[in-house]
Amino acid sequence: MSGKVGFVSLGCPKALVDSERILTQLRTEGYQVTASYDDADVVVVNTCGFIDDAKAESLDAIGEALAENGKVIVTGCMGVEESVIRQAHPSVLAVTGPQQYEQVVGAVHQVVPPSRDHDPFVDLVPPQGIKLTPRHYAYLKISEGCNHKCSFCIIPSMRGKLDSRPVGDVLDEAERLVKAGVQELLVISQDTSAYGVDRKYQTGFWQGMPVKTRMLELCQALGRLGAWVRLHYVYPYPHVDDIIPMMAEGHILPYLDIPFQHASPRILKAMKRPAHAENSLERIRRWREICPDITLRSTFIVGFPGETDDDFERLLDWLEEAQLDRVGCFTYSPVDGAAANALPDPVDEDLALERQERFMNVQARISADKLRRKIGRTLEVLVDEAGPDGALARSQGDAPEIDGQVHLPGVGDLRPGQRLNVVVEDADDHDLWARPAP
């Protein structure tokens, strides 16, 4: 048996998928994964480097691993800033960047050589690979990198340009996951709508059938697997409209996670957002005409350099009209290397926080009203946690960890991963309370 590897995974779902790939490879080579610093022969820390707070958290995690274990390999988005990491923690054994799976595994080999006695046919790895999520849902990463140059973001400099995975590989992975019991596939990338652009939408093959490397055909194929399919990080390009009828027909979940970021054309232009000229309110109206049950989630930035009171009031007016279901809002945070740092007229931090509070108060009212309208309705839910006193589930409009939950108090005969219909009995600003449908 090879050695034991400790693993710390920070950051977004895309980084989590990177961690799963590294762990699957290590497990295939016979390494054991341990949750304890004490008995690990080496610890791998997968970092996040998107904003300053994330970098600080990554440096803290590296420091803790060094203090508790002493042998630490660093990978992930902050790995592109090796000098910063080594200045803070000169004793780390190796530093690699994001998506550098082979280099990470190679660094582990240097510290703890793989066992010559390992037999992959005996030391079995589950067919879906090693997963860091509960077994009933999984993130399905369809591409790496991004072609955009949003002025507040440094993702392209860390993760490179768009690199779409072959459609056959994506669908093979999805099928393995569903066969292993996964009930929900969360499709992720930096820009899901752009899937296949870099490959000129070339035709691939899956199960002997031709499938174009494009979001529409990918969703059509995923929709035949029988699991919930949830789309994240979808930029509002015109071709997104083609996906909505599939949601109305029940092939994929009626859920879109679209990072609108702002509503003021002037601020969107300063942000260099793709598709910023699209009439988003008219698009939303049409989507709801086609699929009335669609859930729309988005994120926004307030306090962006140059944002005036008029820009912010325009954003609030847009939010009132858009009536989005789920919303996150962040104050602008400068990131080393981002073009937005050079923009004039920075917004005072206290003013940005005040705008964030006002924005979220408006959204809380909208969310509470939309959830109250679900009282009395029958919804399909997926159980996340279950015990003798009740269960926690999610509706089709709730992504794990970022949206609301459906509480099922007093229902003691459920299991995680179970799908069932429930009748909604109560609601607050974020969550629903329900009982199993008769």
UniProtKB/TrEMBL annotation:
Domain TRAM: 372-438
Uppermost EC category: transferase
Intracellular or extracellular location(s): Cytoplasm
Domain Radical SAM core intervals: 132-369
Cofactor binding: number and manner: Binds 2 [4Fe-4S] clusters. One cluster is coordinated with 3 cysteines and an exchangeable S-adenosyl-L-methionine.
Annotated binding of [4Fe-4S] cluster 1, by residue: C12, C48, C77
Chief place of localization: cytoplasm
Residue sites binding [4Fe-4S] cluster 2 per the record: C146, C150, C153
GO biological process: tRNA modification
Role played: Catalyzes the methylthiolation of an aspartic acid residue of ribosomal protein uS12.
Family that this chain belongs to: Belongs to the methylthiotransferase family. RimO subfamily.
Annotated protein name in UniProt: Ribosomal protein uS12 methylthiotransferase RimO
Gene (name only): rimO
